[in-house]
Each structure stands twice: as structure tokens, then as C-alpha cells.
Amino acid sequence: MEIWINPACSKCASALSLLDGEGVEYTVREYLKEPPSADELEEVLRRLELEPWDITRTGEEQARRLGMADWPRDAGSRERWIGALVEHPVLIQRPIVTADDGTAVVGRSEEALRSVL
């Protein structure tokens, strides 16, 4: 299992605590230090069955600077969204957990985390 985290994120700390409590072995990826590539994001999105705008933190200051609230959410704009997430990983929702079987969740709730255990 791999978990993408930002150490300053309280939801990430809660997710790690739950995984530790369950005795789950996992690898931590601090995605702000080691940003995902466009291909990695595409793979995670495929596993999540989501689009890039679904995992974008549009309330972040960087999103406001980019004007993302006005970006179209369609196939023609998908590459633009992916590019923004690659260039500004702070915009990625967290934590994202990918289980060994390939399933993935945005682990913002205990229920979501338990679904990949």
C-alpha cells in the first residue's frame, strides 16, 4: 500500500494513525517533495475513477492565482488540469491511498480508508 501525504495535513496524520492502528504495511510518499508525474497522476485517477478536477484543492491560493475556478471541466481541458497538478502538487487532494490490489481512495474519511484495507 502507498499513501501520498503532506506531513502538515491533519487528514494525512489521521490516515497514518488509522493504518498504523490496523497494522497495515505501507509506503509514504511526501508528494510535495516528490511530485507525481503526469503518467502517475493519470494512473491514480484511473484507479480512483475520477477526473483531475475531482482531486484538485480549488480553495488553495495557487488555484485562485491560476483562475482554476473558471477552467472548463471537460475532456478538452483535462491535460491543462493534469499539468497544473504536476506543476503545483499542493493542489492535489490528500491523502491518496493506493492498495496493493490496485484500488485507490482519497482517504479523507475513516470509511474511505477502511474500504482499501
What can you see in these coordinates?
The chain is 38% helix and 12% strand. The protein is built from 5 helices and 4 strands; from the N terminus they run βαβαααββα. It has helices spanning 10-21, 38-48, 61-66, 78-87, 110-114; strands at 2-5, 27-30, 96-98, 104-106. It starts with a strand and ends with a helix. The mean pLDDT is 95.
Write the layout of secondary structure elements.
Layout: E1 2-5, H1 10-21, E2 27-30, H2 38-48, H3 61-66, H4 78-87, E3 96-98, E4 104-106, H5 110-114
Parallel strand pairs: 1-2
Antiparallel strand pairs: 1-3, 3-4
Uncertain stretches of 5 or more adjacent residues: none
The separation of the N and C termini measures 9 Å
How much beta, percentage-wise?
5-15%
Largest pleated sheet: 4 strands, mixed
How many runs of DSSP E, i.e. beta strands? 4
Mean pLDDT: 95
Overall geometric form: globular
- Helix % is 25-40%
Element-by-element helix/strand order: EHEHHHEEH
Structural class: alpha+beta
- Give the strand line-up of the largest sheet: 2-1-3-4
Task: Report the total helices.
Answer: 5
Radius of gyration, CA atoms, in whole angstroms: 14 Å
